[in-house]
Amino acid sequence: PTLKNARILMVDDQETNILLLTSVLLRNGYTNLKSLTDSRQALALFDTFQPDLIMLDLHMPHLDGFAMLEQLQEHIPKNAYLPILVLTADVTTEAKLRALKDGARDFLTKPLDLAETILRVKNLLEVRYLHQQLQIQNAQLEERAVELSRLNTELQHANLAKDEFLAGMSHELRTPLNAVLNMSESLQEGTY
Questions:
Q1: How many CB atoms lie within 10 A of CB 52?
Q2: 178: how many CB neighbours lie within 10 A of its CB?
Q3: Per DSSP, what are the bridge partners of residue 9?
Q4: Are 8 and 52 in contact (CB under 8 A)?
Q5: 183 contact partners, CB below 8 Å, separation of at least 6
Q6: Peptide bond into 111 cis (omega under 30)
Q7: What tens digit of pLDDT does each residue of 136-163 get?
Q8: Are 60 and 90 in contact (CB under 8 A)?
Q9: What are phi and psi of 33, to 5 degrees?
Q10: What are phi and psi of 146, to 5 degrees?
Q11: pTM confidence score
């Protein structure tokens, strides 16, 4: 998948912020967008939409961004990299550190620099896709390692069978050869 096909979920209680983000993302070629102004509906949409990126406001009524981050961590598999970009007017260091500690991958303050926002979205999506490609390659390597282990076991069994066969053949050949050697020695000595 290309970055422009990425599924982006926006959660912000201000409709004007959603409209601005939607407009900027659409202008930059991102078309697979969903948005909510009621954060209480976000988990249901998260499960059905399965976003590649979440853009999340921190201060919202009912369920704030910190509570959303906490709930999302329970729904995101441990080995997955799902970037969450926090967008907030809260410029305090405490808010930034808490959001990043609670699972956000990046943090932007409002009013947004739209060019920076698009670059951050692009960067986060690139990291997500690279992470997914790495997971696929790791899974393929694990499959190959299992196959190599199986082949190694088969090779060990084949070598063992070969050794047993050669030992048996050696014994089978030695017995008649001993009789031939004894006979030839007797003929040489003239005792036969």
A1: 21
A2: 10
A3: 34, 54
A4: yes
A5: 192
A6: yes
A7: 888 888 888 888 888 888 888 888 878 7
A8: no
A9: -115, 140
A10: -65, -45
A11: 0.74
